[in-house]
């Protein structure tokens, strides 16, 4: 009896705990970043397909530069839209605000001969005021963002028609147009590549590797799982190879355009804000669970208000970049830009319920759409079929998000 009791009360010794296997770490990493990695793989496949289909035109330096310049304003909007969606809202007015800011810039610079630097500052302030107006009704009055921004879409579009009187204004000053169409000037001795662009690429590589190493050290400090050192070096090598391939492609033409520098600054700034600041964590908390966020001390009204002010500033910047590239202020500017920005955010990993998404994801989603647009145009696919294909891509991305949530919750 005592022997039986002793056997019952003596559990089998637990298996020795060891470090997770390489396969386990890879699987965990893929699961935690499934949307982002999935879109990266999708972007790579799309590039390979259209590079072959277009007879190697897609990745030619001239076309890559055109890709950057043609999609810069959409990527700027996508960054702001991603933050809005993370906070649990939507903004349908950004396309019309792009047109309104472009019209205001045209009136200031062309009709009234205002210095373009001053006009740019005033337009950014005007965008902030437009975002504050909408944010006030959403945050403090409690009207749903869908309704407020739908009203804004109509109002800003009408304001554009009033400012321009139904006509286009051109040309903009050369200095202003270079903000979108200009390139970093060449410096240093003659080489086969654009020297300043190559230096920037090397700096980006060093910064990216340092950031990866820093993130690894932080995870190790908190005794979290980290990938084996060999895989870490492989990942860093892949990042460096991708950055340098892109850098050398741009350097073999005219170098990096100013629009790319603007986008890079925004990417670094907002990535840091959303990942490393209290404001960024509050935005995620508000979109993930608003009642819990309020109980935790998050000032939900103020955060929502600032999110829409930020969206207004970014929409104004996108409007200026678009007007500079177009060379004129037109009443039809910005048509469907809000749909492109929303699609880029969702394709890049945003969740329809809020609280999920990254700035990098918005860039990836925008690039997926940009490469699709450019590639389909190169191979002669009509705009009607292009809309169908982009709609299916958006539906697949959101459907994958819903499926992934159900799988995790089951």
TrEMBL record:
It is a multi-pass membrane protein. The chain crosses the membrane at residues 37-53, 73-102, 114-131, 137-156, 226-250, 256-274, 303-324, 344-372. Keywords: Cell inner membrane, Cell membrane, Membrane, Sugar transport, Transmembrane, Transmembrane helix, Transport. Residues 1-20 are annotated as: Disordered. It is found in: Cell membrane. Pfam families: BPD_transp_2 (PF02653). The keyword Mitochondrion does not apply. NCBIfam families: GguB. Part of the binding-protein-dependent transport system for D-xylose. Probably responsible for the translocation of the substrate across the membrane. This is Xylose transport system permease protein XylH. It comes from Streptomyces niphimycinicus.
